[in-house]
Fold this protein.
Amino acid sequence: MNRPQARPTPSRGWLRWLTPLALSLALVACHESDFDPRDPARGPGSAVGDGSTITDGNFPGGNDTIPAALDVEPPQGAQVPDCGADCLSFCDAQGFENPVHQGLCTSLWGVGLEPQPVYANEACRRLHVDLTGRFPTRDEVNRLCAGRSWDDIVKTLLDSEAFVEVNQRHWADRFLYNTRALSIERIYDMDALVGKLYRGEVAYDHFAAIASAHPVLTRRHDTAGDRAEALFHLFMGRPPLGSERSDLARLYTLWTNGYYDHPTLNMRLSDSFIRYRCVDEEGNIDPESRGQCTSILYGYNELILTPDIRSVGEDNQMWSGLLRADEWEKLQMPGRLLARQQAFWETAVDDVIERYLGYDLGTMVPEVRAALVDHLLAHDGDIRSVHHAILTSVAYLQSARGLTDTDHRWTFGPLKQVDSEVWLDTIKHSVDYELSSCDHRISDPRDLLDADSISAIALLEASKWEMREDGDDVRRDYSDLARNLGGCPANEVGGRFKIVSILTTSTQLNFVNQVCNPAMTEGRGAAIETLLPDGVHPDAAVTPQLATQIVEHQVETFFGRPLTDDEREMAATHGDTCERARCRAAEFARPGCFALLSSSEMLFY
Amino acid sequence: MTDHNAKKGFKPGRRSFLKGMGVAAATIAMPHVWVPNKALAQTEARGAAKHLIYIRLSGGFRFSAAFNGDTASEFNPFGKAENVASATEWGVGKLFELAGWLNGDQGAERAALGMRPVTEMSDQMAVLPCVDHEPLSARADGNHNTGLQRFNTGYVGGGTSFLTMINYGLRERFALAREQGTVALPAFSLGDSGMAMGAGPYAAHRPPVMQGDGFERFGFSAANTLPDWAQSMASSVDERYRAIHHPQNRAGVDAYMQTRAATELYAEIFNDEILKIRNNSDEPIDGLSNRQLATIFGDSRAARNVRLALRLFHFGCPAVYLNQGSYDMHSGEEAGLPRHMEELGRILSGLEVALKAMDHPDGGTYWDNTLVVCGSEFGRTARGSRFNSARGSDHAGDYATRWMSMPVMGGLVTAAGNGGKSFGMTRPSDLAPEGQVYSYRSLLKTLMDALGCDHREFFPADRPFDDLFA
C-alpha cells in the first residue's frame, strides 16, 4: 500500500482538554452512521444470541466424594495402569458425577494411586490466577475461599466478568488480532462473540461455525487453503492433511481480501470481501465450475453465493459488511462440518485441559477426554461445563509440591508459568503501582490517533489503552514491558510467548527494582505505605520482630498466603542484621520487597 | 537417456586442490576420523566473521540511486558518480559524492582520520545488484507489511527473525562462555522489535531490543544494589520455592534461577563505562575513544547506534541491527534523498575508518572480522518517470521495486579481492537482470555461515554462496 510521506503532526496537547468531550462529540457525530465508539463491533457475532444462556450454569460434578485408593499394588514408575475387574467395579461403585473423575478413576484410585492433597491456599491462589488473571492477596484469598464449598467458589468465578476477559484474551491470541491486518470493527465483533461463549449464551459448535466464516479468520489469511488450514489449527488442534486442506479450501474460495474506507473513523480498514465464484456471467450457478465450490470430504456440500446489486467493480466483489444473515449462515459451513467430527469436540476439551493442568491429560488418560466430551455434549455445548468439571476435579485440586511414589503425571498438581500480564497486573495491584495497561483488541493504537478523527480518538479513549498526558500517544509503559516478556502481543506475525530467558529475567528484575526501589532513590518506587504493615512508620527502627511483621505483610500481599515457620525465622535473622546496622523500616521493607517480588513464586503457580 | 550417463572427468582446479590439501592436513592432524558435516551447507568463509552490522535503509530504498547507479534516469534520476575508486565495477550513485561532513574544522579532523566520500572508497565493498525476496515470484512484493516481514524473517508470516536465527545458531558458543563463567553478548536489535521475533525453541534466543542507547533496562545488579541480607533473602526465597515442589515441576524454577544468576554477569557489562558512548571519554578502547567515534559518526540516532554497535562487539556481540534514514519518500524524494544518503555515506565511510583503526581482542583489526551489509524491504520505482508527480517514488511490482542492490563491506570481502566488484548486473534501460540473481534468504544464510552459525534449521531451500568471500 502506498502511503503519503509522513508529515510533521502538531502536538496533540489539545486532547487533554478534549478528552472529556471526545466521547460525547463522537457519539453525536456517529449517530447517523450507527457507529458507536464504545461498542464498534460489527459482524456476524453481534447478531447471535439474545442474552439468554443455553444452560443454567448449575453444572453437576462439583461435589464428588473423593475415595481412598483401592488397596492394590500401584503401577511403578511410568508403567501404564492396568484396570482389572476389581478396579472397574470399584470405579463403577463410586457414582462420580464429575467426568474427570469418571475417566480418571481407572488410572488413579482404581489402580492404587493416590492424588497429592492440595493446600487450601495453593488451590485458591491457582484458581484466582486462572480465572481472573491476577494473583490474589491473602485478604482476597480469605474473602473468596474461606468457609465456602469449592464448587460454589468455582461457580462464582465462572460467572464473573474477569473470567470472560481472561478468555477473550485467550482467543485474541488464537485469532492473532491485529488492527492492521483486520478491521477493528471485526475484532470487536469477535471479542463480543467470545464474551457470549463464556457467558454461556452461545454453544461451542455455534461459536466455531461463526468463527469459521468470520473476517478475523478469513481476512487474516491470504488463500483459501491457508484459511482452511487456520480453521483446522483452531478447532481440530492439528494441521489438515493435504486432502482435507484442498477439500475445505473449496468452501473458502468465495473470500478475498480488501480494504474499505471507514466513513467515521477516517481510516482505511482491512476487511474481507466476497468474490463470486462458480457462477456464470449472468450470475447463475455455473454447472461446469460449481465443483470448485463444493466440498465432498464430509458429504456433498456446495457453497455458492449469487451476485446482485451489492456487488461492484470488474471483479464483481462485495464487501462482507453487506452480507445478509442467510448468507453468513451459508458461509459458516466449514465450521459446521468440522463440528460433526468427534475430533472437534475432543480438541475443545483438550484445549481447556491444557490451560488448567499444563499437560496433556486427555492423551495420557483418554477416558478423561471421552468423558468430558460426553459432558460437554450433554450440556448443549456450553463450554463452561468443561471448565467447571476440570476446575472441580482432583486433577486440578492436587498439590504441585512434595514427592510421589510413582511418576504418573496425574498424581501431582501442575506448576505453570504466568502470562506476563498476570505478573504485571499483580504487581500493579498489590503495591498500587502507577502503570497503564494495553488492550488486546487494538494492536496499534497509534493508527487511531493518526486517523485524526474524533471517532477514532473516542474509540481509543473507551479502550483499555491510556492516553499520555501530552495527548501525543498512548502510554507504553505497560505494553513495552509486557511485549518484552511475551504478552500484550501485537500479533504482526508471531503471537504470545512464555519463556524464561536472560532477556526476560533482566527485564523483570529491572522492573521490580523500579517498583521496590531497594536503593532508596528519592521519589521513586511504590509508596512505602504499601510495603509496610498498617501503623508502621517508615522511620521506625527495625528489630527482628518488626522485620518479621514486614515480611509477613509482604508475603501475604504478594503471595496470598501466611508466613511459614522457616520464613519467619529467616525474617528475624535478617531483621537482626538490619537492627545492628540501625536500619529504618523503609530500609528493610524496600529490599525485602525486591527479594519477594522478584522471586519465582511470582512467576510460577 | 541411457543407463550409462557419461560422467564428467575430474579436473582438479586450484581451489579444489587446496580444499583437498586442507582436508588431508586436518585428517592427519586430528587424532580421530574427521567426517565433514554434510547436512550443513557452508561457504569457504564459514566462521571467518565475528561481527555483522546489518543496516536497514528504512522504508524502502531507491537502490538504483545508490548501489546500482549505472541505469537510466527513470531509475536513477540523480546520475552516476564519475570519479570513483579504481577497480569499482558497481554503479556508484552520484549522491555518494556528497560529503558535507568533510567541511570545516571538524571535517578536516575527520579527513585526517581517513574519512572520504563513498565514491573514493567504493573499492572497499562488493555489491549484489539483484537480491530478491522471491526470485521465483512473478512480481515484486511492494507491500510495506509483507516486505518488512520478508526482510526481518525471510518469509511473509515468518515467525523467527534473522537476529534470532543468529543467536540460536550460535547457542553453543554462548553456552560455552557461560560454562566458563564469562558472557558473550548476543546479537542486538537497536530500535526495532521486528528483528526480535521467535517462538517455541527460538523464543529464548530473541535478541535484546534497545530503544535509545542506554542499558537501563538490563543493567540491574543485585550485587550492586541490595544489602547482603537482601541478596541472601532473594536467593533463599527461590531455593525454598524450588525445594518444596515436585521434582518434575522444577524445570521452570531452575531455569529462572539460572538466568537470574546469568543476569549478574550481564549487568557487569551493561554498567561498563565502555558502553557509555556519550561520555566524551578520551580513553582509547580497542584503539579509538568514544570522543573519536562521536567525531567520526556524529550524533544522529543511526550514528549513535553504530557507535554502540562497535562497543557491543567488544563484549563478543556477533551482530547488531539498526535503521538508517527514512526513505519511504512518496513525495519530496528529489529534495530529501540527498540528505539521507549523505548520512549513509558518512556511516559507511566512518565504518571503514573505525573498523580499520580498531584492534580486535582476538587479533587483527575489526575490519578483518566484521561485515557491514545494507538492505531494505524493497527498492523503489517512479513507474517510468524520474519521479512521481509529488517528486517522490513508490513501490510496486516491477524490477525497480524488486531488486535490493545490497552492498557488503569488510575485510573478508577485500581480502578475497572482491572489493569494488559487482556480482550480477542489470540492463540500464529497464533493469532486467543480466547476471546472477540472489535470493534474499540465501544471502542471510551466507551471512549466518560467515558468522559460524548453525543454520541448518533455517531456509532449507536456500544455500549459502561463496561469491563474496572466495
